[in-house]
Amino acid sequence: MAKLAVIGCGYVGAVTAACFTDLGHTVECIDIDATRVAMLQRGIAPIHEPGLEPLLRAGIATGRLAIRSTYPERMDAEIVFIAVNTPASQEGAADLRAVRDAVTSVANRLATGSIIVNKSTVPIGTGDLVAGMARRTGMADIAVVSNPEFLREGSAVHDFMHPDRVVLGSTDPAAADRVAALYEPLGAFIQRVDIRTAEMIKYASNAFLATKISFINEIASICESLGADVTEVARGMGMDVRIGAQFLQAGLGWGGSCFPKDVRALAHMAAVHGTHPQLLRSVMEINSDQRLRTVQKIRAALDNDLERRRILVLGAAFKNDTDDIRNSPSIELAKLLQLEGADVAIYDPVVPAERIHREAPTLRVAETVAHGAFGAHALVLATPWPEFKTLRWDELGTLMARRTVIDSRNYLDAAAVVEAGFSYTCIGRPSLETPATVLESEFAMRRAE
Ligand code: UDX
Question: What angle do CA 326, 327, 328 make, to 5 degrees?
Answer without folding.
Answer: 90
